[in-house]
Amino acid sequence: MTDEPLLRVTALSKYYGSRIGCEDISFDLWPGEVLAVVGESGSGKTTLLNCLATRLLPTSGTASYRMRDNQWRDLYRMSEAERRFLMRTDWGFVHQNPADGLRMTVSAGANVGERLMAIGDRHYGNIRSTAVDWLGRVEIDEERIDDEPRAFSGGMRQRLQIARNLVTGPRLVFMDEPTGGLDVSVQARLLDLLRGLVTDLGLAAIVVTHDLAVARLLSQRMMVMKDGHVVEAGLTDRVLDDPRAPYTQLLVSSILQV
Amino acid sequence: MATPLIVSEVAKAFTMHLRGGIRLPVVANVSFSIRAGECAVLGGPSGAGKSSILKMVYGNYGVDQGQIIVDHHGQLVDLATANPRTVLAVRRDTIGYVSQFLRTVPRVSALDVVAEPLVARGINRDEAHARASELLGRLNLPERLWSLPPATFSGGEQQRVNIARGFITDHPVLLLDEPTASLDATNREVVISLIEEKKQKGTALLGIFHDADVREAVADRIVDVTTFAAGKVAA
User: Fold this and answer.
1) How high is the pLDDT of residue B232?
2) pTM for the full model?
3) Where is each ABC transporter domain found (chain A) (predicted)?
């Protein structure tokens, strides 16, 4: 049990020419903590996520990550190879569209196994049994292991993408609208599954979503973004039950009651 | 410490930015404390700010002014200014809360809902389940419901799940937001005895009870919320 954060972000900004992507974002993320980033389209939340996951380079600011050996590393000063290694082992990235995170023309089992091979696993039997185990954990029937994700429904693809990301036991997972394109019943199942996995594995996660219900269910903390800035941040239930910023009040009051 | 919770000069108002920035004062100058083993009840009519006070103590509402000091593992923490991580730690170990309504999560069984606060504190699942079963049994929730998610339960059944979840831990401070509102007489009695046991163990309780019988039975002291009416100072 350590009392140090996992990720430290300081004054991170990203400009597209003269346009603001996100500006002056600072926060710490601790192990096991789920942070939701909410806001409307164009608020800069995905830009922020992509900068943090080093898929984009920020214009200014720093982000440091505490590696497994407890050494702090500046994400933007790492070599490309180191970053790729981090991405394949200690991190996960769940895309809104599963096709962006999966290889659609190789089998479900291989999609999961590929990440294991990337960290040096070579024993086919072990890889396959781990893949079977993970398909089970994301509620995909074992007999679908040799099918390609092309033959899967949207909800199954998304669950497979999650299995592929979590199989290496990452400490930090980035999620971009993980329930975005799914219908409501599939969404509920996926959310519930994610919630269980995040709690059981003690994952830290940064979840970008425009859906406040998703944020409420998954996260302990949230940041509300508008026009590239964080307008309000704090404990998720505090922000949702006692929103202070005008924009947060607008967001919360716009939820339709069922 | 004999006084695990001190609320001092707390004020709260809501600013409605979507309604032209109207400021609705809720409470001002809220000051009271609770001793270990005591049950204080917030009194006053609806709208006086009882729930708001409870929610501020739980960190669910922000605090505009004043301090809420809680003894967290022997350290004094001011919840009015504490960061989210600290508030979460205080909730895990020090302040428990029985809300008025259960927020159900799809597919999580009643037994798991009740056991969760113990599991979160590192107690193994079997023991947590055993203690959850014992409490649900005492609260007369039919055993056939234990393995089902509470979303489809009746109001009274959900409330008993909620009560069991709140009472399962030994948090030194326990907040109760109308825990008996939709219970029948038998189960109200059970809740009264559960509260009595908490007092014996030295838990400091702060509650809202509209039911006069329950209030009479459990309250050591009434904290009159009307004396904290914000209108008086704000006007």
Assistant:
1) 55
2) 0.92
3) 7-252
